Amino acid sequence: MLFISWQALEYKTYEKRDVVLDVLSMEEVVEEEIPLLSLNTPPPPPPPAAVVTEQIKVVEDLIEVEETVIESTEISQEDVVEERIVSVSDVEVAEVDEYVEVPFAIIEDVPVFPGCEGVKKSQRRACFQKMIMQHVSKNFEYPQLALDMGISGRVFVIFTIEKDGSIKKIKTRGPDKVLEKEAHRIVSILPRMTPGKQRGEPVRVPFSLPINFKMK
């Protein structure tokens, strides 16, 4: 009994369990059978091109169209002969007062500055220039604003001595508007002169005069 009891105590039992392993399933790859073509077998011919059949339908004219006649615009020799020939006496020539300007350097009779009337004709050009410079020196005033700002330089003045001896069309060009204004003032007070003449007729004479503004 003692042996049976010991065997009963020593007897061990184990629990039976089912073991499941993970299974990786893959889809079956179906291999496509590619037919092998023989090298000597020619390729199949291309399909025939589509044929387009164009049908031309002739429509009869129901409306009569008048033909347009284009007349030539060219003048024939016969037409020229038939035209009336205009004589010179039929043309009226209007007298036009041309705006003639003769430069001071080439004019025949230079303008006469007041005080140069008794000078020989050959010396009037030099007398004119001398009297112009005297006029500038006598009436010259350095602008105070230009002195304060230290502005100096040369101003070129161009003016025209008209047919009546007056001074017109004064234009100035210089380093500053202040100096240009003073140069314009000096020329604008020039006296009326005897106009210059070309072939005995009074003409307009342009003249250029440089005026220097220099501080001492």
From TrEMBL:
Membrane protein topology class: Single-pass membrane protein
Looking up PROSITE patterns in the UniProt record yields: TONB_CTD
Pfam families per the UniProt record, alphabetical: TonB_C
Q: Where in the cell is it found?
A: Cell inner membrane
Q: Cite the Gene3D superfamilies for this sequence.
A: 3.30.1150.10
> Superkingdom of this entry's organism?
Bacteria
Q: Which residues form the TonB C-terminal domain?
A: 127-216
Q: Which UniProt keywords apply?
A: Cell inner membrane, Cell membrane, Membrane, Protein transport, Transmembrane, Transmembrane helix, Transport
What family is this protein classified in?
A: Belongs to the TonB family.
Protein name per the record: TonB C-terminal domain-containing protein
Tell me which species this is from: Postechiella marina
